[in-house]
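Running co-folding for coenzyme A.
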Amino acid sequence: MANEIELVTTSLDREVFKIGIQRPDKLNALTLAMYDAMTAAIESAEVDNQVRVIMIHGTENCFTSGNDLSDFAENPPAGEHSPVFRFLRAISQAQKPVIAMVSGSAVGIGTTMLLHCDLVYADETAKFKLPFVNLGLCPEAASSYLLPKLVGYLRASEILLLGETLDVETALELGLVNCTFPAADLSGQVMQKASQLAAQPPASVRLTKSLLKENQARQVAEVMGKEGKLFLQQLARPEAQEAINAFAEKRKADFSQFS
Ligand code: COA
């Protein structure tokens, strides 16, 4: 396997700082080291005067399948300073605009991170899924607060309780993505949007972003902290162990024994 750091690439394209999730053999599942690399990338982009826009992308036909499930078993997050929670704080508190470009699966944190982005573009292959309950876990990234706010309570509970896959048309209708582009044009079209944003007056962009976010910033931080603690509790429970073992063993999880 390649060095962990290479699984997250960074590059500056004009004033757009691209953060690439590049682990296609595991559908870009995120390990602790990858979260650390993404956090460091966001932090460096925030203080680099050459950067006006941050863009997060995956590989062709895959954004990310979410947290690496073997990492959940072998290196579970240990507390609020764990790499995953540091990454979530970094993306939710970034002052520069963050654009996500989604192709293929965006599972778990692959979808919840989008709730913190300022613009989300996808192609027709994009699929979104929040399987926290399916895994015996609970929502993260303040999604229990942000998702019902965005899509309404019934749609949010459907997405979270059933953990079904949403296609891109549904995501568009729900307001999870701004617009879609054909897969062949996605990167060019998103780069065009990113360049358009990078050409806007930067202080005004940052101010407008902070005004858009500040009314909910306190709640987002509070909910994220609360969810994080509960998520860790759930991860240690036998339901989650069964779900994670079932994935590793390529079988359907069986929760019939739990009350
Ligand atoms: N963690 C670790 N490995 C993962 C992974 C994850 N989140 N998602 C996919 N992989 C691995 C698979 O184990 C498989 O590896 P292998 O070839 O060594 O067996 C490879 O990536 C391809 O995945 P596969 O399941 O065969 O692809 P698929 O197209 O049939 O299904 C998904 C795609 C995304 C629906 C499916 O991989 C999945 O459900 N992944 C788990 C998503 C998840 O629960 N994430 C955590 C959310 S909190």
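Result summary
The pocket of coenzyme A is lined by residues 26-27, 29, 65-70, 105, 107-108, 131-132, 135 (CB under 6 Å).
Residues 1-5 have pLDDT under 50 and may be disordered.
Job closed.
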